[in-house]
């Protein structure tokens, strides 16, 4: 009877690997104020009364839609540094559903606009504080929502190469702010002709 000796199995610990690093290649906001020098909002909180009355009405009647539109644009800008293509802006996406659910269940969905206002202020280095943001979002929600929309529009139009001197005029609806939706649809006219007779 022979006894065979087995060599013990040696387990080696895996060597440490370099930690993963995530880099955000998104460029900084073009209209952000200089570091340490906060700036004012590009338009006043009542700027909706100066050419943006249609948007103001939409925000009064359907604030969940306005929130959904500008929040999805803000999130896209923060993630990629690029303006969201106009055709990708949903009229009523996930942010709008959340806004509507919170408003129906608790009645204070304006807190989402308050948090978004803080995000926008930090992105563009706009002066202000949490108390002002809270009061503006709670007491003047339609005006605050449209101000958020216009502030994002400044960066978007800058990226699209739009003339920033024309920023004082604001169209009534969100779709009219996007160049791609301003072009009238070209209707092609087709004429049918009878085929030539064959012999």
Automatic annotation (TrEMBL):
<dbReference type="InterPro" id="IPR006461">
    <property type="entry name" value="PLAC_motif_containing"/>
</dbReference>
<feature type="compositionally biased region" description="Low complexity">
    <location>
        <begin position="26"/>
        <end position="36"/>
    </location>
</feature>
<protein>
    <submittedName>
        <fullName>PLAC8 family-domain containing protein</fullName>
    </submittedName>
</protein>
<feature type="region of interest" description="Disordered">
    <location>
        <begin position="1"/>
        <end position="36"/>
    </location>
</feature>
<feature type="compositionally biased region" description="Polar residues">
    <location>
        <begin position="1"/>
        <end position="24"/>
    </location>
</feature>
<dbReference type="Pfam" id="PF04749">
    <property type="entry name" value="PLAC8"/>
</dbReference>
<feature type="region of interest" description="Disordered">
    <location>
        <begin position="177"/>
        <end position="199"/>
    </location>
</feature>
<feature type="compositionally biased region" description="Low complexity">
    <location>
        <begin position="179"/>
        <end position="193"/>
    </location>
</feature>
């Amino acid at each position: 009877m022979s006894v065979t000796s087995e060599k013990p199995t040696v387990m080696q610990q895996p060597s440490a690997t370099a930690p993963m690093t995530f880099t955000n290649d998104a460029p900084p906001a073009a209209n952000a104020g200089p570091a340490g020098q906060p700036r004012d909002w590009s338009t006043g909180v009542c700027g909706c009364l100066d050419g943006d009355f249609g948007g103001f009405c939409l925000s009064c009647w359907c604030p969940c839609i306005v929130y959904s539109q500008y929040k999805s644009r803000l999130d896209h800008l923060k993630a990629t540094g690029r303006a969201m293509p106009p055709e990708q802006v949903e009229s009523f996406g996930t942010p709008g559903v959340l806004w509507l659910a919170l408003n129906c269940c608790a009645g204070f969905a304006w807190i989402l606009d308050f948090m978004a206002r803080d995000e926008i202020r930090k992105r563009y280095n706009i002066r202000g504080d949490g108390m002002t943001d809270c009061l503006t979002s709670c007491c003047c929600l339609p005006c605050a929502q449209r101000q958020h929309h216009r502030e994002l529009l400044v960066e978007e139009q800058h990226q699209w190469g739009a003339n920033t001197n024309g920023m004082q005029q604001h169209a009534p609806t969100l779709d009219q702010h996007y160049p791609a939706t301003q072009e009238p649809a070209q209707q092609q006219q087709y004429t049918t002709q009878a085929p030539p007779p064959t012999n």
